[in-house]
Amino acid sequence: MKFMSNVIALSAFAMVAACNSPAAEKVEDAAENQADALENQADVLDEQADNATGATENALENQADALENQADAVREEGENKADAINANSN
């Protein structure tokens, strides 16, 4: 059952991706790359937090959480911009 829902989700994603204009794809890809970089920074901070103690650990974990939230916001903004480009190109 899980396999089937994964296949359905992948098919839906492929159909949506096929509808995107090249400009929308570039915007979405750029946002995805920026979000990935932010998540990588968050991972580094998480690793540093694992090696720290007390207030330092908490501060690093909070910074990592903030970067992950920023990555999510960048991704969402990229998707919204891509959607707007697609809506204007139709």
TrEMBL record:
UniProt keyword terms in alphabetical order: Coiled coil, Signal
Residue ranges the record marks as coiled coil: 21-84
PROSITE patterns: PROKAR_LIPOPROTEIN (PS51257)
Signal sequence segment: 1-23
Protein name as it appears in the record: Lipoprotein
Lineage, highest ranks first: Bacteria, Pseudomonadati, Pseudomonadota, Alphaproteobacteria, Sphingomonadales
